[in-house]
């Protein structure tokens, strides 16, 4: 009771200061009504008949309960021969919930939400509350938290320090290395550049995520002799050169600035090297069949059952957003995330000892940074498609699939949208300034400029097509790139030892759980006994 009165008086004080001293404080009843206003229901809304009945909800709960009881009765204690880690970059819990609406109704399930066990991962970096994709990749791939902007090194290494990361005692080992040491194959797939922060966590050690090519290292005043750029680590490093599958974007990081690539785009290196040629030669020297492709056509013409090593770089930089890929018919030129995942599994499933595969949907994050919520949700939908395909192509008895995100974003679902309202519209209720506001909105970002004008104030969005895929959603604070969010992200698991993934834990626990399920690396059963 005490706290209730305390809160109430705080609210009242706030109300008085906020409005004006002359106004009467709102009554308790008025406050209640403001918090939960009476809503006008949508004219075209028709309830599903079944949802009106108590019986329907009890049946639904009953079937979920039965599922849970059967999972508890027979825990999947198998050993994971294969592990697939799916990473939705920047895929906050809000992003997943909004994707249900994107799929048509709040009662939809995004495919991986069906996985039997869900946990929450704490994402902070050693030096920052809100992390980036580099420090988080170190955490969920190698089990160690590092500093913001650093990859595959512990927190002894400050970001962009020219020397600290050259001491290998700072290097962390990724689960890809543990898998390789156990005789498993390893691979990576991403819609970002294969040298970008998240995939780099599989194979690289660096004080600076932007050191994807040698030129950038020199530009930052460090030595490209002392520090090996990320592209070179992918081709020459001990984990990188043994990766069986590398699929994504980022060709320019592999070629010199004077050389055009297959699509006429110049490279970004300054050391004169063609790392794609070097990659092919290294495989030939080992007597292995290494195939390099740069288009969907090239990929589809390969005999993957005879490919030992596969390198596919489908864009000079990042692959396109999934929706843009379809709208601009790049679907004939570039593979989708699902296409790449399928190709990767075809190669890796030939390994007798099993495999570790990392699959990243890298551009959910970039769409959020641009407050392009529509594209973020389209990419999340395709991410779910790739996961469904992987679950269908593998067996829950021997293949553990973990789906998570590295960090959150600031998008929220706000206002009181109708049950089946298009999520890209404005909320049915108006703001206090009698103007509409978008349901999806960001705490900060470039969308501010689309929705606010210094002279006029908030712009009237009633005649703006907010459903347009290029509409930048409303943001409270102007910022050229929207920021990440600092709250927890979800972890979904299906397969051997899936039950270990429930609860709330440090993000750096994830590789320990996966490695334990596969009995590899420092978290293998016998290692833990010693
Ligand atoms: C590398 O770091 C370790 C641990 O801090 C230290 O003992 C060692 O002297 C360092 N090596 C070099 C070459 O600086
Ligand atoms: Zn980001």
UniProtKB/TrEMBL annotation:
Annotated Mg(2+) binding sites: 89, 196, 198, 360
Primary location group: membrane
CDD domains linked: ALP
Catalytic residues identified in the record: 133 (phosphoserine intermediate)
Cofactors required: Mg(2+); Zn(2+)
One GO molecular-function entry: alkaline phosphatase activity
Residues binding Zn(2+): 89, 365, 369, 406-407, 484
InterPro entries referenced in this protein's UniProt entry, alphabetically: Alkaline_phosphatase, Alkaline_phosphatase_core_sf
Keyword Zinc assigned: yes
Residues spanning the signal sequence: 1-22
Cofactor note: Binds 1 Mg(2+) ion.
Top-level lineage group: Eukaryota
UniProt keyword list: Cell membrane, Glycoprotein, GPI-anchor, Hydrolase, Lipoprotein, Magnesium, Membrane, Metal-binding, Signal, Zinc
EC primary class: hydrolase
GO cellular component term, pick one: plasma membrane
SUPFAM superfamilies assigned: Alkaline phosphatase-like (SSF53649)
EC number: 3.1.3.1
Membrane topology: Lipid-anchor; GPI-anchor
Subcellular location: Cell membrane
Family membership noted in the UniProt record: Belongs to the alkaline phosphatase family.
Name of protein: alkaline phosphatase
Lineage: Eukaryota, Metazoa, Ecdysozoa, Arthropoda, Hexapoda
């Amino acid at each position: 009771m005490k706290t209730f009165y305390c809160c109430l008086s705080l609210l009242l004080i706030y109300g008085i200061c906020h409005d004006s001293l002359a106004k009467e404080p709102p009554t308790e009843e008025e406050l209640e009504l403001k918090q939960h206003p009476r809503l006008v229901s949508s004219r075209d809304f028709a309830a599903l008949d079944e949802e009106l009945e108590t019986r329907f909800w009890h049946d639904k709960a009953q079937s979920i309960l039965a599922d849970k009881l059967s999972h508890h009765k027979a825990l999947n204690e198998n050993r994971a021969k294969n592990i697939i880690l799916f990473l939705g970059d920047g895929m906050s819990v809000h992003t997943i919930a909004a994707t249900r609406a994107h799929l048509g109704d709040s009662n939809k399930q995004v495919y991986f939400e069906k996985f039997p066990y869900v946990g929450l991962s704490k994402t902070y970096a050693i030096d920052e509350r809100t992390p980036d994709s580099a420090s988080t990749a170190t955490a969920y791939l190698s089990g160690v938290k590092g500093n913001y902007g650093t990859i595959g090194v512990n927190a002894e290494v400050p970001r962009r320090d020219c020397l600290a990361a050259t001491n290998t005692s700072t290097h962390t080992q990724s689960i890809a290395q543990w898998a390789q040491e156990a005789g498993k194959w390893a691979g990576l797939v991403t819609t970002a550049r294969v040298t970008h922060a998240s995939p780099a966590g599989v194979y690289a050690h660096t004080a600076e995520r932007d050191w994807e090519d040698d030129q950038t290292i020199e530009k930052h005043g460090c030595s490209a002799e002392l520090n090996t750029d990320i592209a070179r680590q992918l081709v020459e490093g001990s984990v990188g050169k043994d990766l069986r599958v590398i699929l994504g974007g980022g060709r320019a990081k592999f070629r010199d600035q004077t050389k055009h690539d297959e699509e006429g785009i110049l490279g970004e290196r300054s050391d004169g090297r063609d790392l794609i040629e070097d990659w092919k030669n290294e495989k030939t020297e080992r007597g292995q069949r290494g195939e390099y492709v740069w288009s969907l056509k090239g990929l589809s013409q390969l005999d993957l059952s005879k490919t030992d090593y596969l390198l596919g770089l489908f864009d000079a930089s990042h692959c396109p957003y999934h929706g843009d890929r379809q709208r601009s018919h790049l679907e004939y030129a570039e593979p989708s995330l699902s296409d790449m995942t399928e190709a990767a599994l075809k190669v890796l499933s030939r390994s007798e000892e099993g495999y570790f595969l990392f699959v990243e949907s890298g551009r959910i994050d970039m769409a959020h940074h641009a407050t392009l919520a529509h594209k973020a949700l389209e990419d999340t939908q395709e991410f779910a498609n790739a996961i469904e395909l992987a679950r269908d192509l593998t067996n829950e008895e021997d293949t553990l699939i973990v789906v998570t995100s590295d960090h959150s974003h600031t998008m929220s679902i706000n206002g009181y949208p109708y049950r089946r309202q298009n999520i890209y519209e404005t909320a049915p209720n108006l703001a206090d300034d009698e103007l509409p506001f978008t349901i999806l909105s960001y705490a900060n970002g470039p969308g501010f400029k689309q929705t606010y004008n210094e002279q006029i104030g908030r712009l009237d969005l009633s005649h703006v097509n907010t459903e347009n895929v290029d509409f930048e959603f409303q943001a409270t604070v102007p910022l050229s790139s929207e920021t990440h969010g600092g709250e927890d992200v979800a972890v979904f698991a299906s397969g051997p030892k899936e039950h270990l993934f429930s609860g709330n834990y440090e993000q750096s626990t994830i590789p320990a759980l996966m490695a334990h399920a596969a009995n590899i690396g420092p978290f293998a059963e016998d290692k833990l006994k010693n």
